[in-house]
Amino acid sequence: MPAVLPLQRAAGFVALLVLFVNGLCLLPGTSQAQEKKDEVKPLKVLLVTGGCCHDYERQKLILSEGIAYHAKTEFTIVHEGGKSTNHKVSIYEKEGWADPYDVVIHNECFADVKEPGFTEKILKPHREGKPAIVIHCAMHCYRDKTDEWFKFIGVTSHRHGGHFPFEAINLKADSPIMAGFGEKWKTPAGELYHIAKIWENCTPLAHAHSPETKSDHVCIWTNTYGKGRVFGTTIGHYSSEMQDPVFLNFISRGLLWSCDKLNDDYLIKRSEPARFSFESKLGDPQPTPAKK
User: Fold this and answer.
1) N or C: less crowded end of the chain, CB within 10 Å?
2) Is residue 71's pLDDT more than 60?
3) Domain 41-279's class?
4) Ramachandran angles phi, psi of 216, nearest 5°
């Protein structure tokens, strides 16, 4: 057998090294996973907001920018009604109003809109499968005496308690929605809604104790309504609650769950809390502003 010269030996080693590196490139890796994630189209989110009693000007920015910071989403915002309680949001009057969107966030407060026919226009796409997020005063909307709105959101609430921070206790630590929540979270401020009924398709994820009723009231949950998934929370009267990283984490995860997209393709891992356009400094990286 001929002797292998040093140069030949080196050439053979280089060839093997090239093959090894090429083989590594063919394996599923971080770069390929990132490329796949970059190819995933953002979920189209419709945020409906407006009405009395809350700072919806700021909250629409917190929700749209904060969720987009944590989940692959793009927002369209419908903000109507001023501070009224009886405004009928115009988009609900349109046939197929929810069709262009993957999920709808209801963060409105119109307690004096009580016509069952109008409520049905809102509920029809959700019953047929359109995912929904319901936040805080959405629980006190569209009380048309049919109970259909309450079946949709998953709970019945007629009133709220005083204004004070409260501890939300994690009831489902194994739920992917509650990952990162911890055993409990004390809100920086609060207005705890009193829950009179939990509907049969509702799964409580967290509750808080009311010193006024001396009862625990569910404050985070999931629900199914017809073919649609619904994620709900009564937390969110104050903007300081919404800006809290704990809130933005569970609301983002809840949104992805409602779309059956709670996975690494849509979750965006962050090491720093979200910053918002109303508090930004020139040059700071910011979430993509929401569409107006």
Assistant:
1) N
2) yes
3) alpha beta
4) -90, 140
Measured CA to CA, the distance from residue 229 to residue 27 in angstroms comes to: 36
CA 8 distance to own-chain centroid:
61
* Euclidean distance between CA atoms 281 and 52, whole angstroms: 31
The full length of the chain comes to: 292
Nearest to 60 by CA among 42, 80, 43: 80
Cα-based distances in Å from 227 to 39, 93, 155, 201, 259: 28, 22, 18, 12, 12
The CA-atom distances, in angstroms, between 190 and each of 32, 134, 162, 219, 228 are 43, 17, 8, 11, 29
pLDDT tens column, 212-233: 999 999 999 999 999 999 999 9
In the chain, beta strands by DSSP E: 43-51, 73-79, 103-109, 132-135, 155-163, 167-170, 184-186, 191-198, 203-210, 215-225, 228-233
Query: pTM for this structure?
Result: 0.84
Q: Compute CA 248 distance to the chain's CA centroid, rounded to the nearest angstrom.
A: 7
Give, in degrees to the nearest 5, the angle at Cα 155 between 158 and 92.
Answer: 85
